[in-house]
Design brief:
single chain; mainly alpha; 2 helices
């Protein structure tokens, strides 16, 4: 075990060397030399490297911002183109729907005109048939009226009237009706 004693060359009651006033001059000299060397190293080696790194970063950031702006412009162009295409597609769809509606309406109108024409022909035929049946019925009404009158007169009076008198009476009744 070693102890500090005056025999082995160390001072027992000394001060801490940086605080010793007798060494201030040499300490200030070494401080100036060290500061100068560190200043020179920083200004010639470290700071240029840091400056280069910062410049590269700034250039990269500017490049990235320019690229981002270019991509933004492209996306806005693409959106505008998409919206224009969508508007054109909607217009085409609307035009196609109008054409289809007009075509369907024309087909319906043509079919309705055909049905109306067929109904008109059938109505004309039915009216002609009804007119013919009415004429036949009217022709038979006279003969039925004559026969009925003959029977009534013969039942009421007991004698049959003459055919000319009956026809004259039936035609007078028809005119009155």
């Amino acid at each position: 075990m070693a102890t500090t004693t005056p025999e082995n060359g160390a001072e027992a009651a000394g001060s801490f060397p940086p605080f010793d006033p007798s060494t201030f001059g040499s300490q200030l000299l070494w401080l100036a030399i060290t500061f100068g060397v560190l200043y020179w190293l920083m200004s010639k080696v470290a700071l240029p490297r840091l400056s280069d790194i910062l410049e590269v970063r700034r250039d990269r950031i500017m490049s990235d911002l320019d690229e981002a702006q270019r991509l933004k412009d492209e996306s806005e162009e693409a959106i505008a183109s998409y919206e224009q295409s969508l508007a054109e597609a909607r217009k085409k769809a609307h035009d196609i729907a109008l054409v289809a509606r007009d075509k369907a309406q024309a087909e319906v109108d043509a079919e309705q005109a055909k049905v109306d024409a067929d109904l008109g022909v059938k109505m004309a035929e039915a009216e002609a048939s009804i007119d013919e049946t009415r004429k036949q019925a009217m022709a038979e009404v006279s003969s039925i009226a004559t026969e009925t009158t003959t029977e009534l007169v013969s039942v009421l009076i007991g004698t049959k009237p003459t055919k000319a008198a009956l026809e004259k009476a039936v035609s007078a009744a028809e005119k009155a009706a």
